[in-house]
UniProtKB/TrEMBL annotation:
Quinone reductase that provides resistance to thiol-specific stress caused by electrophilic quinones. Also exhibits azoreductase activity. Catalyzes the reductive cleavage of the azo bond in aromatic azo compounds to the corresponding amines. GO terms for molecular function: electron transfer activity; FMN binding; oxidoreductase activity, acting on NAD(P)H as acceptor; oxidoreductase activity, acting on NAD(P)H, quinone or similar compound as acceptor. It comes from the Bacteria. The keyword Flavoprotein applies. The gene is azoR. InterPro entries: Flavodoxin_fold, Flavoprotein-like_sf, FMN-dep_NADH:Q_OxRdtase_AzoR1, NADH:quinone_OxRdtase_FMN_depd. Its EC number is 1.6.5.-, 1.7.1.17. This is FMN dependent NADH:quinone oxidoreductase.
Length: 199
């Protein structure tokens, strides 16, 4: 890991009182308490992302050396999201569970960064993720679906996506396990982050 960078992705539709936003901020603080040199890049998905459409698919499936200026313009935002991910050593994805799965904006982000030749490639043995050597934290919260249960399709989906793009060092943090109002909550989170680092 050479970039000393954190990419923090927030996807909750709530700005105030969001458990995932609070906990993801604490993960950032915990990481920086161990390494002050870590830079931070924040991406708030709640303002909306474009969805994959016909023009995007056409541009993406055009060989890079054959793309015209319109193709490049169509893919430019996706390219910037991929670059953010490639540059990060630590990835924090904060996601509530909406209707058993992830928010639509987070799915849109995944569709924008799952790019053949950039974040994964096809081989004779199947797809291979290209974002190796990164650490990811999935910060999850739910109003009724237990994290890790058989009806939690959100964390299982995110774990699969991480593996698909080559990020296999992943820790799931369940917001319900932390008292975010406690005086020692940062210490609690720091302990979890440190345990994940040596696991």
């Amino acid at each position: 890991m050479a970039n000393n960078a954190i990419l923090q992705i927030n996807s909750s539709g709530r700005k105030e009182g969001s458990l995932t936003r609070q906990l993801s901020d604490l993960v950032v603080k915990a990481l920086r308490s161990e390494n002050e040199a870590l830079s931070l890049n924040q991406r708030d998905l709640s303002t909306g992302l474009p969805f994959v459409d016909e023009s995007w698919i056409g541009a993406n499936f055009t060989a890079p050396e054959e793309r015209d200026e319109q193709h490049k313009a169509t893919l430019s935002f996706s390219d910037s999201l991929v670059k953010e991910l490639q540059d990060a050593d630590h990835l924090i994805i904060a996601s509530p569970i909406y209707n058993f799965s992830v928010p639509a904006v987070l799915k849109a982000w995944i569709d924008m960064i799952a790019r053949a030749r950039l974040t994964f490639r096809y081989t004779e043995n199947g797809p291979e993720g290209l974002l190796k050597g990164k650490k990811a934290y999935l910060v999850m919260a739910s109003g009724g679906v237990p994290i890790g249960s058989e009806v939690d399709f959100a964390s299982r989906y995110l774990l699969q996506v991480m593996k698909f793009v080559g990020i296999e060092d992943v820790t799931v943090l369940d917001a319900s396990q932390f008292d975010l109002a406690a005086d020692n909550v940062l210490e609690q989170v720091r302990d979890q982050v440190n345990q994940a680092a040596v696991a």
